[in-house]
Design goal:
By secondary structure, this protein is an all-alpha fold. About 75% of the residues lie in helices and about 0% in strands. Helix 6 crosses helix 9, helix 6 packs antiparallel against helix 11 and helix 6 packs parallel to helix 14. It is globular and about 100 Å long.
């Protein structure tokens, strides 16, 4: 006996298809979130181990505490008159009190797990040596005060570098072999020098010789009182470090994007579009930029992340009070909470960016799909 064929209504099938697609997306999102969370946890714990030297920094801090206690007690006339055994006991007691105050009396292995939990919850506590400009020892306040200068410098430099290089690269991809194209290719190796290297020359030329721009800092001393005067002062201090950022990477970035666009411009479907008589602007937008959009989005997203991290040597050369310079000071002073704080913030930003990029890829690139198992195909 033949069973009757069940007829599925188009509307029911459409709803079922949308539900299955939504379920796959949610499952994929959850799995990617778990993987990234584990990655961040491992990265933060490794940062804690490295920042503490596997516990070796504890010995350095103990030596510093003993030195400070010894100098403090040596300046007390009454303490010097006491017997040697009594002085040794008082010295050890003071050292023990300070060690307990900093939790250095516990093994590093035990404290490292608490550091990990505090780091993942952004509870960085107090810095060991550094202070904020307002006198606070809390890591959140220290990093919070340095965040705006870093964003100001790197948002200006990196965004200007990104958009100018992409636009010029598109222009050069249409003029392969021209004079300006050869100039850019010839100047590409100049990007081997870091930004602080160019910063030193910019300071020598425009500050020391010409005297047009300040040597460093973020604002004049004393700061201008008026709003517009303060803004103009900050912009004047911003010119040299932002220029160093752009100059150090401009030609190699243009060369990279120009080569990238040339590869896609030589595809068969681009030649077909030219044969159809489409304008160059339409060909660039539909047949060159759209296939390269995932790469452009990735580069732009990583550019945004770099705004938060700063550059240690560049900010030090220009005396720029940003995240990079405070990280340099923290490394020199073995200030573990500040070091871990910068690493954790960067790890979270990187994980969130990678998570969002995976979702954006599926939206902008039809070649990227979510399979039935929620995995990339």
């Amino acid at each position: 006996m033949v069973k009757p064929v069940e007829v599925v209504q188009p509307e029911t099938a459409s709803k079922k298809g949308r539900f299955d697609a939504l379920f796959r997306i949610l499952r994929y999102t959850f799995s990617r979130g778990i993987v990234l969370a584990l990655t961040v946890t491992v990265g933060v714990y490794l940062a804690i181990l490295i920042a503490n030297g596997g516990g070796h920094v504890d010995k350095i801090q103990e030596s510093l505490i003993r030195e400070q206690v010894g100098l403090m007690l040596a300046g007390d006339p009454e303490f010097i008159k006491l017997p040697r055994e009594v002085r040794a006991e008082i010295n050890e007691r003071e050292v023990r009190i300070r060690m307990e105050r900093l939790d250095l009396d516990k093994p590093f292995y035990v404290r490292s797990h608490r550091y990990l939990l505090n780091g993942l919850t952004l509870n960085f506590g107090q810095a060991t040596h550094l202070l904020s400009d307002s006198g606070s020892s809390y890591v959140r306040n220290i990093l919070g005060e340095r965040l705006f200068p870093t964003l100001l410098l790197f948002a200006t430099g990196q965004l200007l570098l990104f958009f100018s290089s992409v636009i010029l690269a598109l222009f050069l991809s249409r003029r392969y072999g021209s004079v300006i194209d050869k100039i850019v290719v010839a100047l590409a190796p100049t990007s081997a020098a870091p930004s602080w290297f160019y910063g030193i020359f910019l300071i020598l030329i425009f500050s020391a010789v010409l005297g047009w721009l300040p040597f460093g800092g973020i604002v004049d001393t004393p700061p201008p009182t008026g709003l517009w005067a303060n803004i103009l002062s900050r912009l004047k201090h911003l010119i040299l470090p932002a220029s160093a950022l752009v100059i150090s990477s401009f030609f190699i970035t243009v060369y990279y994007w120009r080569t990238f666009f040339l590869i896609y411009s030589s595809e068969d479907y681009v030649d077909m579009a030219k044969a159809k008589g489409l304008s160059s602007s339409v060909i660039e937008r539909r047949y060159v930029l759209r296939p390269t959009l995932p790469t452009i989005i990735t580069s732009f997203a990583l550019t945004l992340i770099s705004m938060w991290t700063g550059a240690i040597i560049l900010e030090t050369v220009f005396s720029w009070p940003g995240i990079g310079r405070i990280t340099y000071d923290a490394i020199n002073l073995f200030d573990t909470p500040v070091i871990v704080g910068t690493v954790v913030i960067y790890a979270y930003l990187l994980a969130i960016t990678v998570f969002l990029l995976d979702i954006i890829y599926a939206l902008v690139d039809p070649r990227v799909k979510l399979g039935a198992g929620g995995n990339r195909q």
